[in-house]
């Protein structure tokens, strides 16, 4: 069995291209990873990794060895999972990166239900809109809204997010109600990450560049600013659920609302992931399978 020592560390280094990143992924020290790799190379009698001050890469021999042992490790991990699936005994920590009001108000409660079903599982949910490095930051998956630029990641759609435009009664009484998207150029609009709003007008998409006194990338801050009468807001419908139901905000421009974007689960492109991660992703996809933005208004 000694011949298997160092293989897990070798695969982690090969995939993360670094000893520190591999150590973080495995939850051990960098020195442990380095020692295991050195012993593995000594037993094999060859160099598997080419090390420089900035980069760790596979040698030709290392690349061949990686392809072979990777399949063996995946098979072993999947065999272990078959046993675990019979017991459904999840442990460890699930680390999730999330951004936006949808993640805060809907995804977080869903993950709380998942945690209740698995008492020995810990969940670390970081609300941050920055781009994450899944290996370096130790993130299992992220919840993101809108178009995804990084094609190296896997994305599974959670829900479609059609849009809604709203304003406070005080604002509308003072400045009037816009009748068509082009009228927004003469209004104060609350800007999020995008100051070009897309509507449907006469069967075609119409883009309107807006401006205003308040800008924020936080959905709750936009909602509160709109309720205070600082301008018109345009975001996914579920953002305004309670405010519209309670009459604090009024829907406007309803015939022109756009279809919006989607919320996604995003994770690293790898053939194997921990059982807790896979089950959490499948749980969220199933949980939101029948969720509709319109039903929350």
UniProtKB/TrEMBL annotation:
Coiled coil: none
Name under which the protein is recorded: LysR family transcriptional regulator
Keyword annotations from UniProtKB, A to Z: DNA-binding, Transcription, Transcription regulation
Organism this protein belongs to: Alteromonas alba
Ranges of residues in domain HTH lysR-type: 1-59
Pfam family, one: LysR_substrate
DNA-binding keyword on record: yes
Lineage: Bacteria, Pseudomonadati, Pseudomonadota, Gammaproteobacteria, Alteromonadales
GO terms under biological process: DNA-templated transcription
GO molecular function: DNA-binding transcription factor activity; sequence-specific DNA binding
Family, as annotated: Belongs to the LysR transcriptional regulatory family.
CDD domains: PBP2_CrgA_like
UniProt cross-references to InterPro entries, sorted A to Z: LysR-type_TF_proteobact-type, LysR_HTH_N, LysR_subst-bd, WH-like_DNA-bd_sf, WH_DNA-bd_sf
């Amino acid at each position: 069995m000694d011949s298997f020592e160092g293989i897990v560390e070798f695969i982690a280094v090969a995939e993360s291209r670094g000893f520190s990143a591999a150590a973080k992924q495995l939850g051990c020290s960098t020195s442990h990873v380095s020692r295991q790799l050195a012993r593995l190379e000594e037993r094999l009698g060859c160099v598997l990794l080419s090390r420089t001050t900035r980069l760790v890469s596979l040698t030709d021999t290392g690349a061949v060895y990686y392809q072979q042992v990777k399949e063996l490790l995946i098979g072993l991990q999947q065999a272990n999972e078959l046993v675990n699936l019979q017991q459904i005994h999840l442990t460890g920590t699930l680390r999730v990166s999330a951004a936006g009001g949808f993640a805060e108000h809907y995804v977080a409660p869903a993950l709380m239900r998942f945690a209740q079903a698995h008492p020995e599982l810990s969940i670390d949910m970081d609300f941050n809109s920055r781009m994450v490095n899944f290996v370096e930051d130790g993130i299992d998956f992220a919840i993101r809204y809108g178009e995804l630029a990084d094609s190296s990641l896997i994305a599974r759609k959670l829900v479609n997010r059609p849009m809604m435009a709203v304003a406070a009664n005080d604002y509308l009484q003072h400045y009037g109600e816009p009748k068509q998207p082009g009228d927004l150029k003469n209004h104060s609009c609350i800007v999020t990450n995008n100051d070009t709003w897309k509507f449907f007008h006469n069967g075609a998409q119409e883009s309107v560049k807006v401006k205003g006194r308040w800008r924020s990338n936080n959905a709750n801050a936009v909602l509160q600013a709109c309720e205070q009468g600082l301008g018109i807001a345009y975001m996914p419908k579920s953002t305004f659920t309670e405010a519209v139901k309670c009459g604090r905000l009024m829907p406007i421009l309803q015939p022109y609302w756009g279809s919006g974007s989607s919320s996604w689960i995003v994770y690293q492109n790898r053939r194997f992931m921990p059982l807790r991660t896979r089950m959490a992703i499948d749980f969220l996809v199933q949980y939101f399978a029948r969720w509709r933005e319109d039903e929350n208004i």
